[in-house]
Amino acid sequence: MCFSGGAAFTGVLSVVLTTKGKLTAFFWGMINSLLYGLFAYAYGYAGDAQLNLFFFLPVQLWGIWSWGEQMLEGQNSVGSDSNELTENVSNTVQSRQLNLWQWLVCLVLAGGISVGFYYEIPVFAKAISGVYFFDVKVVARTLDSVVNALSMIGQMLSIWRYNEQWYFWLSVDVLQIAMFTGVAGYGIVINVLVMWILFTLNALSGLYAWQMRYYYPETAANHAEDESKDAKYQQIIDIENDVVVDIHDAHCTTCRDPSAHGNGSEGFTSPLAPLPVSGN
Hints:
Structural class: mainly alpha
Helix content: 55-70%
Largest sheet: 2 strands, antiparallel
Number of helices: 8
C-alpha cells in the first residue's frame, strides 16, 4: 500500500510536469519508476516491474539530457525610473510532430514489441519469482504485453519531444484502467486505479497543450512570460502595500480615544484623520 500510494503521487506529479513541458518531470519520473516497479514486483505484475525498473528508470536520465538541449526560453523586464527588474521565464520544452512514415514505424514497432513481451514476460516472471500469475489468463497476459510495448514507444516519443506520445499514453491509460478494475483478472488496487484515471485526464490535457505548443510556439512562450510577469507585478503590489501599512503605523500620533486606531489600542490615531481646527 505504501508503494502504491507513493507511486500514485509521484506518477501524477511527473505526468503533470510532462504536460507543462518541464524538465523536472524526469526527476519525479525516476522516483515514480522505482516505487511503481517495486509495487508491481510485490504484486506479481512482472511486465510492469521490469518495464519500470529496467527501462523507465534509466531512460529518465536520457530524458533530462535530451530535453535540456531543447528548451523554449524567454525574458520579461519590468522597468522603473531607477532600476529594471529582469527575470527568466521558466523553461518549457519545444515539441515536434511525427510524419506518416514515422507513425507507421511506431505502430509496427509497438506490434512487434507486444508479441515479444507476450512470450518474454512469463519467462522473466518465472525467473525472478518462480511463477507467472497470468500464464493461463490470455486477456491479462495480452494486456500486460501490449501495455509494455505502448509504454516503451510513448516514453521514447516523450524523450524525443513528439506530440504523438499522448496518443500512446492514452491507450496505455485506458488499458491499465481495464487491468486494475478487475475486468482482466488483475484484481482491484484503488490507489493505482485512481492514478491511471488521473493519468487519462492528464493525457488529454497534455495532447492539447503539446499541440498548441507545436502549432503556436510563440503564443506558448508569451503565455509563460505573461504568467511570470503577473506574478512579479503581484509581488511588487504586495511589497507596496506592506510599505504603506508600515508608514501608516509608524506615523500614528498619541490620542486619548481608543477607538481612534483600528486595533483599539489607547494612545494611537491615524495620521489620515482630519486635523483638529484651532479655536482662534
